[in-house]
Amino acid sequence: MKVCDIIAKWCEDIDTPFVAGIPASGMLEIIESLAQKEKDPIPFVLTRHEQGAAMMACSYAFHTGRPAVVMASKAPGATNLAIGVMSAYIESIPMIILTQQVSNEHELLEAFEEIDLAEFFKSITKWSVQANNPRRINSLLNEAYTRAMSGRKGPVHVALPYNFMNVDVGPYVAPVLPSATAAVSAGSLARISQALTGAKRPLIIAGGGVRSETQNDVTGLAEALNAPIVASWLRKPVSDAHPNLVGMAGIGGSPAAYSAIKNADVVLTLGCRFSEQMTEHYRMRFAPDVRLIHVDLDPAVISRVFPAEFGVVGDMADVLPLLRQALPARSDDPQVAQWLAGLQKQHAEYRAQLDAQATDPSAVGGREVARELRRALPADTKLVLDSGNYLHWAEQFFLVESAGQFHYPTSGAMGFGIPGAIGAKIASPDSFVCALVGDGGFAMTMGELETARRLDVPILVVIVNNAMLGHIRMRQDSRYGRSFGSVFTKQHLARVADAFEIESAEVSTLAEFRDAVARGVELVNAGKSMLIDAHVTDELAPGPLDPWWKD
Q: Phi, psi at residue 109, to the nearest 5°?
């Protein structure tokens, strides 16, 4: 069996929904092998930039937990993948990256487009190798898949010399994933249960490791303990409507989340790395006598930032049901109930303050964009964000019913919104998908609008257009009293959609925005995409400059 055919068969066996990228030398044989499958061939998705391919795959895996495959040519195409690969690495999202490499006969001769790709990807992948023997490619691919999907998931990379593609290397061997079990003993489970049930001020911190399939176990634990839930930064791991949720930790976080973390006596931390943004540059502190229980797939994460009395290495899907079984049905301690009630009251007051804020209706502000999208879009909408100041308003006003509906790439990658929305729609074809992007991020990947149209993937794209890099300008104004190098000229981005025959609207008032969103819902439900260019006020979300951790 030829190498190119083995790669195509392997893509089929790992159930990738697509192989995305831009064709080039060495990839053509693989693409042809993909296309030769008579029934249900794996589509090769041509993107406008390799960055878009990697971001699309990253978003797809965020919503499904399964990896997609991205391919790129030698140095220029491969390095273009980096920002999307980096995003997957930081968010622990599986992805398979296959890059072409120069012929091994020409290696180290400074051949055309030659760089050491295995070394290039090492710092942003779980594993990065180059195949130096065509007979090893099948086993390397199988190992890559195992590494991507085992433990703390993430992207993996295999570089393939292009002269290997037509080499016959013998029979194909299918990939097999090993089974995994929770690494929690009965003894440690009993001690953890005793600590939680003995708490007077219990707290659950839910991070990105909490997925949609485990959210009910998290809320079940909170209900059994009468414990508040705090979400890690820009994650929405449970429904915003759940009464035990008291807000988000970190930059732009809620006052109740601050109070809960500062005063809790026992903290159950689930799938959280205590990132810089979540701890507000590591200023966050627990109570001096806190008992910290930390559950995560990655043993290196446990006790790295805060020392844990109990560390559990395991998958949430395995560990959380065991914890629920070990706890009583519901805490009846009045002191614990009072603790939760006080935090709920504080959070309700904060929500009321947020809801009272508004921009003059003769204009439209960033908060109104998020608020009106929430009001007009279906309840199960998946919102995919780019990087920008407006994301704080999205966190506050775009409330979700379930985990997995809100995806901000915590890598901070600009340009993620449109390709991310395409990946989300492929992952969830029956869900309404909206990309909420800043004008800076939109311009980086706006060509992927054509990809969405060509693939018949209907998405709503909403641009928060304030003609600036809001985060940067806010910091400049605060530090130096002026902005420099962070402001764009006036831009009519709705006109970009015309180039791809996508309907668009340019709006600058609340009434115009509401009408445009209503039209967008109508079009997306009819199978077409729409772009809304919302020219918003200069007001910026204060979260980045308003300290959350007060001590």
A: -105, 15
End-to-end CA separation in angstroms for the chain:
65
Domains of the chain plus CATH, in order, are 3-164 (3.40.50.970), 187-351 (3.40.50.1220), 358-535 (3.40.50.970)
The pLDDT of 347-353, averaged and rounded, is 97
Please check the confidence at residue 182 and state whether its pLDDT lies above 60. no
pLDDT band for 180, please (50, 70, 90 cuts).
Answer: low
For 11-49, the pLDDT digits (tens) are: 999 999 999 999 987 789 999 999 987 678 899 999 999
Q: How far apart are CA 517 and CA 88, in angstroms?
A: 30
Q: What is the dihedral of CA 412, 415, 416, 418, to 10 degrees?
A: 160
Residue 527, token pair as written in the block: 């199978």
Burial of 435 per CB tally in 10 Å (0-12, 13-18, 19+): buried
Instruction: Give mean pLDDT, residues 342-355.
Output: 97
133 vs 73, 138, 155, 541, CA distance in Å? 19, 10, 22, 54
Instruction: Output the pTM of the full model.
Output: 0.94
Q: How does pLDDT run across 199-218, given as a tens digit for each residue?
A: 999 999 999 999 889 999 99
What is the Cα–Cα distance from 348 to 355, expressed in whole angstroms? Answer: 10
Q: How far apart are CA 547 and CA 551, in angstroms?
A: 9
d(C-alpha 477, C-alpha 114), whole Å: 44
CA angle 464/456/153 to nearest 5° reads: 70
Spatial separation of the C-alpha atoms in residues 455 and 438, rounded to whole Å: 24
What lies within 8 Å, CB to CB, of 542 at 6+ separation is none
